[in-house]
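Tutorial handout. Part one gives the primary structure; part two gives the three-dimensional structure as tokens.
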Amino acid sequence: MPDEPENRTHRLATLRDRLSPDMDRRTFLRTVANAGYGLGIASLLGVEDFLAVGDGEVPVVTALAREDPDDPWSTRERTKSVPAEWYARVSKAFELHNHLAETSITGYLGSAVKPGTYDRGTASISIEASASEIGRIEDLLQILVDGVSFDIEAIDDLDELDGETFEGEPRLATDIDDGVPGGVRCQTENGFATLAPALYHPNEQRAFFATAEHAYSSDDPVGAPLSLPHEEGETMDLGTVRYAHPVEDIVAIEPTGELQPASRIDGASTQVLGQFTRIGLADLAARGEHLEKMGAETGYSSGKIEGIDAVTCFTSDVCRTGQLRWGEERDLTDGDSGSVTYHRDPENPNDGVLVAGFNNARTWWPGQSYVWGVSAYRLTNEYGYHF
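Part two.
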């Protein structure tokens, strides 16, 4: 029988009673895993994290943030305490959602986890499916779902892409003496996109420019150039594509000239200090916090989180996992792809922002309205990149 959220809540809430400061690492990991934590997240925490929280709470890793704002390699796991009951239900929703995403279901188009608020203690899974197959999926979910609610949306007319574009002046780079920030227009041989802030690769120990992979027309854009239109009318070379990730829809561009990527977002006033984890995004959603974005075409916008750890199968034969949904479809247009969503650093709101994920697509069918793109935590988990 699947573990009920209430049972997991009880085990998490009483975990501290089974811990001691002198416990060795192996015993600690075994103890927290038995209490409902996955070993992946437990390995980021220590005994002191659990002993420091209050009754009915558990510690979680919400972000990878810099200890030194000027050193991108000083990122450390940041923890906070959350209600044990809420954590148990969200963990169950993530678990069931992963199982759903790995199940081959005809008509399945996508899904996402909605964490619910702290006070209500609920979590749900939203699912999109072809109208003709919705009955079969409902029957399957009666078997899969235990203790987590779900909502199914019938989707039709996926071939009718809305071609509406934003008519306004693009955001062009201005002050680049200290590096090129994210949120400004960049140019491929196929058109325009938006630059992300500096993306760091662990093996290279250097900063890369980044934008959307679909901004290139080639199936393999490695080696293709990226340039920067400047407000004074000139276009400058930024570099060439070093790494391409078509499923995640991002490319990492190696700088080849004097211009370097900056850990800043144009118009955000402060620098990028790190990124949110999956449970960190769930925490933002539970508290009703909004995400922000700066696109080269539509400029600034903000909106609430619509789904976490999402799966989207709308745009290709391959389903994209680890996606973030937020805002409304009007928050993104052609040329905004490659931008990132962000939120003020909860611990240092006046000093900088943390990245949530990329923005690369929007809904175009009736009944739903949001923007989506790969989450920062997904890129870290799969490839080691960080902001």
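Part three, for discussion. The chain has a mean pLDDT of 87. The radius of gyration is 21 Å.
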